[in-house]
């Protein structure tokens, strides 16, 4: 017993002394040596990140970016170990290095960037917070001034709705929080709250999986900006650079019109810009610490940004979220999706 | 001198462990500093900016009042702590009561009561508490009538939004009540006189200053109650869950304690001419309590610590508020140290209270 304590003390001391050694290596090298990516995702948000109980596989828009990274690094999109993260633990999981990166419908905010010890990757989805009610309950937000709003703990949504209520000076409105979206949805459907507030895309997902979606309405008002992005631990710019350009590659591919199908034709291209992008010329890949042909690997595995979007939010998907005319359209079509040049 | 060697070894081990923990903390601090997050408790005085569905906090100059988003993180944590305390203390009280009842059932001569009590203990002890909380919340309390169809009974409203009681305020006549109580206290040797004095006080007060207590029934509005005292379903789910769960263990503690009193004590009591009930009350129970107190303290501590499951049913207990604070402020290390210290204090407080009681009931050997 005494000996046990002694060893414990020594072990803790050693751990503390050895800590800094592995803290200094870039995560890029750690992941390459490991040969697998540990990616934090949502497990319960249909459309973005969802663990299919039947197949045991993760699917969703965010999950595709984990796959893109694994494809870029190892040429195999399946070399990923997924870690489900709930809203509250996600930043700690990245801060502690428990996951290499998280793609988990997370909003970029100054507070998170500054105070939470994480750095953000490029935005992959422009969202905004909305409110869902049962049909007939309200037609606009104004009618909800005495309502109880349910939302998920540890989200921007929790704070936004409070800000909104304060700005409107609604004295009787209440906010009730639960630890995950499924519980929010359960309490909302049973009538414990009048409204479910979350990012609109997420409301679409929850609505689609409700027993009777036609009885739920998402109000048209948007009360916040929710640009969603992946994030990594703070101060590891090599890792962050590599990941950022993997994300950009999907957008740039769409801008060039390169798809999974026509990729082989583009590989025969004579255009210098395209040849550089696909790693047929130059050293962009190596400079970023990535394989020369990382872009090709990414497109082969997951396709370009538009293809990823359509797979999960396209007209054929149960979580249809129109893209035309929204911020998620390419810049050339009036949206905000745009990649800095691969030059 | 084996004692000195023992002490020395203990000191060395303790020192090593403390050193290990401190260097771990120092390492965490320096790593956080490297990421631009210096270790500091200054964030506690920043504005919280989030809401809590229920809970009082302390504000200088205002005393205890509901928590507002414009309050600080510290005030948010305090509100969480008071919510925890509310469930813990009420829970301990009710669980003890229910536990006694169930123990009585298990030892009863009636086979039906015995079977029921045994079934209760087995089912409750062998299913996870978290599951029971979900059942209480999602399958019981949220199945109450919706707010529009709230059951209403004499100013009391019951629905899935919770139980709303009329708010009881002090009226002018409370002075008369106080005087009546005061006079009654002095006359306590003569119950009839005391009762008379009490009535007289209340009557005079009522005539002179109005009713002693005023009931303000809640107003039922489209979205919820206005006024009134609200017991939320989240609070109720956590309380019921903890009480029913812990009572099963407490029942076993009591049962074990009563069975542990030697048979001879019963026989001695009967030999003195005491009947069954009196034998139990005067001879067996006092000895059983002595045996029960230490394991009872364990159950109380468990209940207090299990309040941290509140977040599962949307109740803003201390741990739930910690989650939000850590997430918004990024100060998880500082906040968890604080929260651990608070839980430790709460546990030590409960232990101290039980120990004091234990010392009072413990046998004092007079030689
Ligand atoms: N974008 C927001 C919200 C993210 C979020 O966690 N949203 C909820 C939607 S209700 C969610 O994904 N919940 C899934 C779960 O953990 O149950 C943020 O970054 O804070």
UniProtKB/TrEMBL annotation, chain A:
Q: Which domain of life is it from?
A: Bacteria
For whether the record's keyword set contains Cell membrane, the answer is no
Extract the signal peptide range. 1-23
Transport as a keyword of this entry, yes or no, is: yes
The Gene Ontology biological process annotation of the record reads:
amino acid transport
Keywords, in A-Z order: Signal, Transport
A Pfam family found in this protein is SBP_bac_3
Q: Start and end of every Solute-binding protein family 3/N-terminal domain?
A: 36-264
The text of the family note is: Belongs to the bacterial solute-binding protein 3 family.
What is the name of the protein in this document?
Amino acid ABC transporter substrate-binding protein, PAAT family (TC 3.A.1.3.-)
TrEMBL record, chain B:
Record-linked InterPro entries: AA_ABC_transptr_permease_3TM (IPR010065), ArtM/GltK/GlnP/TcyL/YhdX-like (IPR043429), MetI-like (IPR000515), MetI-like_sf (IPR035906)
Q: Which GO terms describe its cellular component?
A: ATP-binding cassette (ABC) transporter complex
Write down the membrane topology.
Multi-pass membrane protein
User: Among the record's GO biological process terms, what is one?
Assistant: amino acid transport
Q: Name any one GO molecular function.
A: transmembrane transporter activity
Enumerate the UniProt keywords alphabetically: Amino-acid transport, Cell membrane, Membrane, Transmembrane, Transmembrane helix, Transport
List the transmembrane segments.
Answer: 87-109, 129-147, 167-187, 194-215, 235-254, 335-357
Protein's cellular compartments: Cell membrane
Give residue ranges for domain ABC transmembrane type-1. Answer: 81-354
- Pfam families tied to this protein: BPD_transp_1 (PF00528)
What Gene3D superfamilies does its record include? MetI-like
Taxonomically, the superkingdom here is Bacteria
Q: Which CDD domains match?
A: TM_PBP2 (cd06261)
Q: What NCBIfam families does the annotation carry?
A: HEQRo_perm_3TM
Could you say which protein family the record assigns here?
A: Belongs to the binding-protein-dependent transport system permease family. HisMQ subfamily.
**What is the protein name given in its UniProt record?**
Amino acid ABC transporter membrane protein 1, PAAT family (TC 3.A.1.3.-)
